[in-house]
Amino acid sequence: MDMVFDALRWVHGVLQFPLIRTADTQITLWSVAYLLALLVALVWGSRRLQRWLADSLLVRTRLDIGARHAAGTLARYAMLLVGLLVIVQTAGVDLTTLNVLAGAVGIGIGFGLQNVVSNFISGLIIMFERPIKIGDRIAVGNTEGNVVEIGARATTVLDNDNIAVIVPNSKFITEDVVNWKYNDDRVRFRIPVSVAYGSDARQVEQQLLAVAAADPDVLADPPPAVRFLAFGDDGLMFELRAWSRSLVDRKGRLISNLNFAIYDRFRAEGIEFPFPQRDLHLKSGVLELRRAPPRSGG
After folding, report:
1. For the chain, which ranges sit under pLDDT 50?
2. Would you state the pLDDT for residue 217?
3. Which pLDDT belongs to residue 237?
4. Contact 78/36 with Cβ under 8 angstroms?
5. Domain boundaries defined on the chain
6. Which residues contact 128 (CB under 8 A, 6 or more apart)?
7. Under a CB-based contact definition with an 8 Å cutoff, are residues 79 and 46 in contact?
8. How far is Cα of residue 30 from the mean position of the Cα atoms in its chain?
9. More exposed terminus of the chain, fewer Cβ within 10 Å: N or C?
10. DSSP letters of 134-170?
11. Mapping DSSP to helix (H, G, I), strand (E, B) and coil, where does residue 20 land?
12. Could you give the count of Cα atoms lying within 13 Å of 145 in the half-sphere of its Cβ?
């Protein structure tokens, strides 16, 4: 029994060994272990709070999924900030003694962590102003896809190849961003069509409208429209304008489906597609033609 008590006293002495000692504060191994355990619990609890708010409590409200996740993320940051201050105080660390360290950290942030701070502030701006939301179809730079997560430093965008692209939040503040679903999930698509000279323009219009009406992914309201744009070098230039809600995330599929249908219908109706052709006019002179000698050796 004495050996057990001796071992406990030894462990207690090790845990009370001072790592940092100042005039008013003493940080021991026990303080560090206590601090780490509470930090792990704080991080776990903050994530649970975020998920509970976004997936349970706020589901009963009229907030959309983007607003719910933004509220959950802000609540998580607030809990981490307040919890960290409380944990440090309860661990026996006097924050006033860390002024010098805080100043050094501030200088480091100012010089070495500019991008991190910029992305973090940009993330807060995105959550408050909500220029993009979870579920939006966006295009920024060379990246296009659906927003699946907005974090403190970066936003995750899932493209059509099922590849997650991590985009720094500052890009959404400093660069031009195309949001396909900012106000409405209906998007108008433009499909250029060229037909040969001599085609009946009104027939072309009717056939294009019939193709759009037959496609289940094209909305009837707003109705599709056809525009006669120009007399091109090789043919008449038309444009089919069709609205869709179901294939906003896969616009290439909608355009391909309409192009296939247009090709099949035009062939059935005898409407010809143009091909590049040039007329050669000789105003004067003589054009001499000579036959090339036959090749030898087969």
Report:
1. 298
2. 92
3. 94
4. no
5. 10-112, 127-179, 187-269
6. 70
7. yes
8. 44
9. C
10. TT-EEEETTEEEEEEEE-SSEEEEE-TTS-EEEEETT
11. strand
12. 18
Q: Mapping DSSP to helix (H, G, I), strand (E, B) and coil, where does residue 178 land?
A: strand
Q: How far apart are CA 233 and CA 148, in angstroms?
A: 45
pLDDT at 10: 57
Query: What pLDDT does residue 224 have?
Result: 93
**165 DSSP β-pair partners:** 157
Name the nearest CA neighbour of 265 among 219, 190, 201, 212. 212
Q: Which CATH architecture has domain 187-269?
A: 2-Layer Sandwich (3.30)
**144, 202, 227, 210: which is closest to 178 by C-alpha?**
144
Contacts for 118 with CB less than 8 Å, ≥ 6 apart: 170
**Rounded CA separation 211/138 (Å):** 28
The contacts of residue 11 (CB under 8 Å, 6+ apart) are none
Residues in the chain: 298
**Cβ within 8 Å of residue 54, ≥6 positions away:** 65, 68, 69, 71, 72
SS percent in the chain: helix, strand, coil, step 5: 50, 20, 35
**Torsion over CA: 155, 160, 164, 170 (sign):** negative
Please report the DSSP string for 196-263 in residue order: -TTS-HHHHHHHHHHHHHH-TTS-SSSPPEEEEEEE-SSSEEEEEEEEESTTSTTHHHHHHHHHHHHH
Given CATH 2.30.30.60, say whether it is the number of domain 127-179. yes
